[in-house]
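May I ask for a sample protein chain and its fold as tokens?
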Amino acid sequence: MATMEKMDMKNEGLQDKVLLMARLFITPLYIYSGIGKALAFGVTASRLPGGEGGLGTLLAAGAVAVELGGSAALILGLWTRWASLIMIAFTIAATLMFHQFWAVPAAQVQGQVFNFTKNLGLIALLAQIAVFGAGSYSLEARSKRS
């Protein structure tokens, strides 16, 4: 019994470190993508339903806000559960819109399958962050201690 209790105590500290690592390691992908969308905003909007100047512009602005704002929230550990849930919804939508491996020419299948399954992993990690929260290395935990 004592050994299990010691393991649980070690795991509690480890869990907070792993949650911090998860939050920090998942964000570069979204930051890179969000900056890319912002720098090529017209091109991004034109690839979305409604195109540039229409609904595509609104969707592109939302994508940039989710990717950069969600990343900032995860890095800081602020509104972490909400940010994770919003990023899950965004990633599901992006995956279904842009990585349809079942509907592309044979030469593109491998790349699309890779991106589709990568996004499944991102969704799973975001779900874990949503369930477990930010951990003790976060602004959320800091505000609770004050």
User: Anything to note?
Assistant: The radius of gyration is 18 Å.
